[in-house]
Fold this sequence. Notes:
It is a single chain. This protein has 10 helices and 13 strands. By secondary structure, the chain is of the alpha+beta class. The protein has 2 domains: 10-112, Ubiquitin-like (UB roll), CATH 3.10.20; 121-358, Creatine Kinase, Chain A, domain 2, CATH 3.30.590. Strands 6, 7, 8, 9, 10, 11, 12 and 13 form an 8-stranded mixed sheet that branches. Helix 2 (114-123) runs parallel beside helix 10 (347-358) and helix 3 packs across helix 4 (213-232). It starts with 9 loop residues before the first helix and ends with a helix.
Amino acid sequence: MNSVPIPLNKASMRKYEDLEVPCDSILANFVWVDGSGICLRSKDRTLDFVPKSHKDLPVWYFDGYNTDQASADNSDTFLFPEVLYHCPFRRGNHLLVLADTYQYNYQPTSTNYRKECVMQCEKAEVEEPWFGFNQEFMLLNTDGRPLGWPPGGFPAPPGPYYCAIGANKIVARDLMEAFYRCCLYAGVKMNGINSGTTPSQWNFQIGPCPGIRAADDLWLARYILARLAEEYGAIVTFEPQPVPDWPGNGTFLYFSSKDMREDDGILVIERMIDKLARRHGAHINEYDANDGADNAKRLTGKNGMPHIKDFTAGVANRCCAVRIPRQVSEDKRGYLEDRRPAANADPYRVISIMLKTCIFDE
């Protein structure tokens, strides 16, 4: 397969956008997490009405055997619609539908962590928790090599690429511009984007949002990014350490409660950090798709990251497990940044354990 990126232009991206769909047809693209806990799947359904909320949509199903979520002899797996977004690909009244997965007996599948997260967020509502995420990722050619890297070799060491400009430093800015606009159109609370510390690495920021919304928006943003990358002839990888000895990819978490945002909230922040230190191992187990095994390749104490065995915290220190931003330290209130979650972490799992540790003292 040709691994040369295809330019993002109208001819390559929107060959059929002018075809008219019957005015009484709404195209709904259902999106869900498969049995891997990180990969997304989707399927389309034609509706004959415009839903006002996710509750107007019917429960649907799919073949869970082919997504590693059911056995072959009992493969029908349920899709429960949960969140509606505007579809940036079809536009108009067409929709993206973020859905949960349930087994034949209406119990959550093994990778449905959203249900538990909803319960935790509802319990914590009085504390008004806010969350945000900084998602790192890398773009690859279809042969698995980082996009824009020299054939058979490596680019110059990290340094000139972060938040950079210039064709000798930046890869796929047009893709990221399209991604930024598509997310905002969809209704994702996108805070910003920037290029990362190596060529072909980018970051985007979600939130801050109350409760579960940041996790929903992060999953939907991951889907939009992968869809756009298809049209670019590229692959998005959320592998925590796609290239050995180079900076890896994380999903940094921003967290605050009502007390943390009030005057002298820094004292609350420090107490939260003490709680996090006591449950370091439990958090590591929740912070990637393989119960800590993926993060062991990334959290090595190198490339500006902490070691997986150590819990550290500091002000404006990117090498720590938990960072207090400089402005938070000066204002003496605000939020904390947990830098441990890997790029393939499930944000529902991350939010759930953060609430259990910091709010419920579990």
